Structure formats: structure tokens, C-alpha cells
């Protein structure tokens, strides 16, 4: 595909793309860096890549501290002159490495890491294709747009007493082990929806709905709704799959669903009809006009140990946004 050829100019991190959003430009994020990439439209597609380091807009832990450098961005969305982004909020277990002995790898599997930059939910002003730390609103006289984020770990603190999610957070279960792992973001007004790759509970995937408001310069906070709830949980029957990406389509939510853990399996795209208008916590089964499968890909085919040949669900998500979402 022509767009895939254009993405090659981003270099080796192209294979780690985890999120994309289409405004008048194409914005891309990797789960292995601390920057956003912008491609501009051209007669032949999208090119002229430009990198925007997140440390210029947000308070992040940088590599000089030795505490880690990746943000693990797992979702992007655009709303009202803000580019929104979310990190996975997940811990990670060290991988088995082929150059290590069995005993070394067994020890590696006991090590769980928590990178502070992964606990990120933020918005950055985006005006005329440029990100700003602060700038005037382009159409609201006297209003200032300012980059801001939810305080680090605030989401986990909010959920630690939750009867469904709290036990997974308290136990520190890594994301790829069916632990807490954010992999989808949708924003409309002051509402934020987070899709969870995990945990999946008895086959039910979880969609979180939260309300966010400005707290002060550079800060956001969660706000309780009129019903007194700080957040809502929506349980979705995705056939045992977790949420791997979200995309707004009018009042509907398009949901990319895939395996929660490291395994072979199908990738499906669902439509949650009126998903942005759910008025209360819900449990939704698959049924026409409510939660529908749009299409799926074949199961992965393992070609050798540690390697899989199958469509990358995040790649499908990017294609889904281009195919189903008009420029915002």
C-alpha cells in the first residue's frame, strides 16, 4: 500500500506504531518512544515527517533520571483543538531472551517493571497542524489552550477500590498477563472513554467512561457526574477478546478487539451502536443494532518459535481510522 511506503520514512520505530489519528494531518504514536510523529498530506499521499518530543509539552520522566524513556502511548484522539493521548498504565514483565540461559530467563520472568511515563492521560493544544504548550484559542477570544495531564497514577488510585479492577491493580499483574492495560482512547467534549485490553473477566471486556475537567495550569482531574459516579464501567461481549483500539464514528464506537495475552487468535472489529450515549453502567451482549461484528481476520499462523505471521491489530486500527473516519 502507498501509505505503508510513506510510513517507512519514520525509520525503525514504524514497526512499533501503536496509535494514529487523522486531522488535516496524520498523527502517529509509538509505544517505544517519547514523541509524536506528524505526516502532512501531499499529492502522492502523506510524507514530510516531523517529530514532536512530548517533553516539550508535558512533565515526563526523561532518560537522564534512569527511570525509563518510553511513554507506551496506546491511544490518540482529537477534540476541540486538543490532541489527546493515553499511556497503557500497565506494568510489564521482562521477556525471555534467546541469548540468555534457561536459568537467567527463568529469573527474568520474575521481574516486573513499572515505568512512570506509562501512567499518562493528557491533552496538547493542536492548532493549524502545530502542537503548543500554550496558545490562544483560534476562535474563542480571550480563551487560552494549555497542555495538561491527569496527575500520575490518579487513574489507578481512582480504581484501586473497584471490586472488578482493584484486585488486579493491588496484585500488580502485568498487562500482557491479563492485568490492567489501556489500549484505546476516544474523547467527546469532556468525556473520555478508555478501552481495556485487560483484564477480561469471564470473557467480558471493559470500557471505562470518565469525565475530565481542568484543575489548574497544566493539570486535569476526574469529575463526578450528575449521578455521583466518578466513572462508569461498560462490560462488552467481544467473544473473550480485549479492546485494542477505539474510534468514534458519529455516536457509535468502533472497537478493535484482539487477544489479551500473548497468543494466536482472531482480530475482530465491532460497532457499539450509540456507544457514546450510554446513560448508565451497562452489560452489552452481541446483537444486531447494539453490538455488531463488522469483520474479522484469520487466526495467526505461527511460522517459528517466538514469531507470528498475522495482521497487526494496531495496523488494522490505523486502517480503520482512515476508512471509517472523516477528517476532523
Report on this model:
The strands form six sheets. Strands 5, 6, 9, 10, 13, 14, 15, 16, 17, 18 and 22 form an eleven-stranded mixed beta sheet that branches. This protein has a four-stranded antiparallel beta sheet with strand order 1-2-3-4. The chain is 11% helix and 42% strand. The relative contact order is 0.11. The chain is mainly beta. The chain has one domain (54-324).
Q: Give the mean pLDDT.
A: 84
Series of secondary-structure elements, N-terminal to C-terminal: HEEEEEEEHEEEEEEHHEEEEEEEEEEEEH
Could you tell me the radius of gyration in angstroms? 19 Å
> Helicity range of the residues?
10-25%
Taking the sheet with the most strands, its summary is: 11 strands, mixed
Q: pLDDT below 50 for ≥5 consecutive residues: which ranges?
A: 1-15, 302-328
Number of strands: 25
Global structural class: mainly beta
Task: Give the distance, in angstroms, between the N- and C-terminal Cα atoms.
Answer: 23 Å
Sum up the overall morphology in one term.
globular
- The proportion of residues in beta strands is 35-45%
- Total individual domains: 1
The helix count comes to 5
Quaternary form: single chain
Amino acid at each position: 500500500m502507498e501509505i505503508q511506503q510513506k510510513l517507512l520514512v519514520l525509520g525503525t520505530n514504524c514497526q512499533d506504531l501503536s496509535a494514529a489519528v487523522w486531522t488535516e494531518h496524520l498523527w502517529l504514536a509509538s509505544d517505544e518512544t517519547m514523541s509524536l510523529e506528524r505526516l502532512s498530506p501531499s499529492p502522492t499521499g502523506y510524507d514530510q515527517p516531523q517529530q514532536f518530543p512530548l517533553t516539550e509539552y508535558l512533565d515526563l520522566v526523561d532518560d537522564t533520571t534512569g527511570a525509563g524513556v518510553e511513554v507506551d502511548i496506546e491511544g490518540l484522539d482529537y477534540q476541540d483543538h486538543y490532541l489527546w493521548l493515553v499511556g497503557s498504565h500497565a506494568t510489564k514483565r521482562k521477556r525471555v531472551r534467546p541469548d540468555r540461559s534457561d536459568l537467567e530467563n527463568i529469573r527474568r520472568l520474575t521481574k516486573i517493571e513499572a515505568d512512570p511515563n506509562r501512567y499518562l492521560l493528557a491533552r496538547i493544544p493542536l492548532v493549524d497542524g502545530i502542537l503548543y504548550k500554550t496558545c490562544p484559542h483560534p476562535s474563542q477570544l480571550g480563551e487560552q489552550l494549555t497542555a495538561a495531564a491527569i496527575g500520575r497514577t490518579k487513574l489507578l488510585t481512582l480504581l484501586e477500590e473497584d471490586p472488578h479492577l482493584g484486585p488486579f491493580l493491588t496484585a500488580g499483574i502485568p498487562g500482557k498477563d491479563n492485568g490492567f492495560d489501556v489500549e484505546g482512547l476516544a474523547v467527546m467534549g469532556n468525556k473520555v472513554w478508555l478501552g481495556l485490553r485487560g483484564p477480561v473477566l469471564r470473557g467480558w471486556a471493559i470500557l471505562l467512561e470518565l469525565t475530565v475537567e481542568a484543575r489548574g495550569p497544566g493539570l486535569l482531574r476526574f469529575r463526578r457526574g450528575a449521578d455521583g459516579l466518578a466513572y462508569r464501567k461498560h462490560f462488552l461481549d467481544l467473544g473473550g477478546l480485549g479492546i485494542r483500539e477505539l474510534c468514534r464514528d458519529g455516536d457509535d464506537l468502533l472497537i478493535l478487539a484482539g487477544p489479551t495475552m500473548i497468543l494466536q487468535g482472531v482480530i475482530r472489529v465491532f460497532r457499539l451502536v450509540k456507544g457514546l450515549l450510554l446513560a448508565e453502567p451497562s452489560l452489552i451482549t452481541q446483537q444486531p443494532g447494539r453490538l455488531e461484528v463488522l469483520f474479522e481476520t484469520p487466526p495467526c499462523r505461527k511460522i517459528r518459535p517466538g514469531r507470528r505471521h498475522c495482521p497487526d491489530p494496531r495496523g488494522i486500527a490505523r486502517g480503520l481510522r482512515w476508512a471509517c473516519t472523516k477528517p476532523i
